[in-house]
Design goal:
Cobalt-precorrin-4 Transmethylase, domain 1, flat, 4-stranded parallel beta sheet, single chain, 321 residues, 5-stranded parallel beta sheet, alpha/beta, Rossmann fold
């Protein structure tokens, strides 16, 4: 029986971004320096496989700091804050409880935090474009007193905003949003508030933008597209949306190769493949290997841009690892 052909278009860039790389390295270096357990408030990044690997090394993921056992000098608990950022109340609480804490917030998220504070000090009310309940949004809103930041999720929400003066408001955005969807919301904001202050530099991070552009390029050329990423990963979900918006008939998330229903793909001849910014490359290669067991596979990597961004590790861990 002849093995059917399958041509895989592999998007580049894909997978880990600099902020995710840094966050994972922070946990590993903390384990090297302090030993297990190291507590991590919320998921360090939104990827099931990464979390399982870190748990195996001794990382303990908690929802809130009150789940971390009390320590006594010199044996103080070590807590890491996730890459998504935290409200200001969290490091204050960690300090009050004598915890050793390391902030793994992505520097590009921290940039948005600083932006919000600067605009607020300048007398501007902050409008945050983002998804309610996402850890990054919770962290960004928590940089300012309650009520200082208004959340906008859709262009329709702009019409529901209270009467505000153009010169008294500014907008910022979550870093992992759909570039296209955000552009529609920003257009609605500028139409209603022509004098609204805008970010000096784009808030949606380079990695989110690059991965969406790569998917936009290959999606019209394939019959189906797989995004390796977890269901609670904002940037991974946006990649699926971009693929569908570009005319790809089938696009879906898969945590790992084991989650793929290959029977639904048995009649296709072209497949797009990418990974969200929190998914490791080994998961992509496992998908290709599984495909080879079912098809006569050819792989073509489509490169839109080459990323070379790196971020420094916090000084407390700089000599570790």
């Amino acid at each position: 029986m002849t093995t059917p052909p399958l041509h895989i278009l592999l998007a580049r860039p894909r997978g880990f971004c600099a902020g995710v790389d840094r966050a994972i390295e922070i946990v590993n270096r903390a384990l090297d320096k302090f030993g297990a357990p190291v507590y991590v408030r919320h998921e360090i990044v939104h990827n099931k496989s990464v979390l399982e690997e870190l748990r195996a090394r001794g990382a303990v993921f908690v929802k809130e700091l009150d789940e971390v056992p009390e320590g006594r000098p010199p044996h103080l608990p070590v807590v890491i804050f996730s890459a998504h950022g935290v409200p200001k109340s969290v490091p204050a609480a960690a300090q009050k409880r004598n915890m050793i804490y390391v902030d793994a917030t992505c520097p590009l998220v921290s940039k948005v935090h600083r932006e919000a504070e600067i605009l607020s000090r300048a007398g501007r009310r902050i409008l945050l474009i983002g998804h309610a309940g996402h850890p990054e949004v919770v962290g960004t809103m928590g940089q300012l007193p309650p009520g200082e930041v208004l959340l906008i999720e859709t262009a329709e929400d702009v019409a529901k905003l209270p009467a505000l003066k153009d010169n008294e408001i500014a907008y910022i955005t979550q870093t992992t949003l759909s570039v296209d969807d955000t552009a529609h919301i920003v257009a609605a904001l500028k139409a209603r508030f022509p004098g609204i202050a805008t970010p000096k530099k784009e808030d949606i991070c380079y990695a989110t933008t690059n991965r969406q552009l790569a998917v936009r390029d290959i999606a019209p050329k394939v019959e189906a597209l797989i995004v390796i990423g977890s269901k609670n990963s904002s940037n991974s979900n946006r990649l699926v949306e971009v693929a569908l918006a570009q005319g790809c008939k089938t696009a879906f998330l898969a945590d790992t190769a084991a989650d793929i229903d290959w029977e639904k793909l048995e009649d296709i001849k072209t497949l797009g493949l990418t990974a969200g910014a929190s998914a490791p490359e080994r998961l992509v290669q496992e998908v290709i290997e599984q495909a080879r067991a079912r098809f006569a596979v050819t792989v073509e990597e489509i490169t839109l841009t080459v990323e070379n961004v790196t971020f420094n590790i916090p000084r407390v861990l700089a000599g570790s690892g």
